[in-house]
């Protein structure tokens, strides 16, 4: 009788182990590259369906645990870079005084703040300007930073990012980017 219980237990455990192994065999971790940048978390292909982290698609993501719904919103953001009254995209290495003008539309939710930051080719981020949004936000607005000076120390691609903070206690989420290419003089 004892021997039968042991055999049933061994059979049950080996069946469960086989299920776990077959589940692992049907999923595959994949690299996720968005606009030439590899995403840290990557994605998975499970039974022929690809699953990727939605936060990496530059939008506002909220999860309502009571309904089990994930909401993704990606407002339309245009970023313009001004040196004085001149729009630019490429620069020579060195210091440059400029400002960032952003036009935002198709926003369907209230937000708490916006931020502009610049990321150098090595991945170092410097905040340029943050602005709290007071009161109910319209579906479209403009945001322009003050003039600031930035040192483009190395040649390469710098990314100027527009971020939105949905609530006062949430973090900033990247919504849009503009690339500045710094060239050797």
Low-confidence runs of at least 5 consecutive residues: 8-23
Radius of gyration equals: 24 Å
* Topology-level CATH name of the largest domain: Immunoglobulin-like
Helix-strand sequence: HEEEEEEEEEEEEEEEEE
Please give the CATH architecture of the largest domain. Answer: Sandwich
- What is the number of independent domains? 2
- What is the makeup of the main sheet? 5 strands, antiparallel
Summary?
This protein is mainly beta. It has one helix at residues 2-25; strands spanning 27-30, 33-34, 37-38, 43-46, 49-51, 60-64, 69-73, 76-83, 86-87, 90-92, 94-105, 113-119, 125-132, 141-144, 148-152, 156-165, 172-183. It starts with a helix and ends with a strand.
How is the secondary structure organized here?
Blueprint: H1 2-25, E1 27-30, E2 33-34, E3 37-38, E4 43-46, E5 49-51, E6 60-64, E7 69-73, E8 76-83, E9 86-87, E10 90-92, E11 94-105, E12 113-119, E13 125-132, E14 141-144, E15 148-152, E16 156-165, E17 172-183
Question: What distinguishing features does this structure have?
Answer:
single chain, mainly beta, flat, 5-stranded mixed beta sheet, Immunoglobulin-like, 17 strands, 5-stranded antiparallel beta sheet, 185 residues
């Amino acid at each position: 009788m004892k021997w039968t219980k042991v055999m049933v237990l061994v059979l049950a455990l080996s069946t469960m182990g086989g299920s776990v192994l077959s589940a692992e065999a049907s999923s595959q971790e994949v690299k996720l590259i968005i606009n030439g940048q590899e995403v840290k978390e990557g994605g998975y292909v499970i039974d022929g369906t690809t699953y990727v982290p939605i936060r990496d698609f530059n939008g506002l993501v909220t999860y309502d645990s009571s309904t089990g719904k994930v909401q993704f919103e990606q407002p339309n953001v245009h970023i313009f870079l001004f040196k004085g009254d001149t729009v630019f995209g490429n620069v020579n290495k060195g210091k440059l005084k400029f400002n960032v003008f952003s036009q935002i539309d198709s926003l369907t939710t209230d937000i708490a703040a916006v931020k502009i930051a610049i990321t150098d080719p090595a991945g170092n981020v410097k905040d340029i300007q943050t602005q709290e949004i007071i009161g109910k936000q319209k579906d479209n607005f403009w945001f322009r930073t003050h003039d600031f000076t930035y040192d483009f120390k190395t040649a390469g691609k710098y990314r100027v990012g527009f971020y939105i903070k949905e609530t006062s206690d949430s973090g900033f989420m990247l919504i849009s980017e503009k690339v500045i290419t710094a060239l050797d003089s």
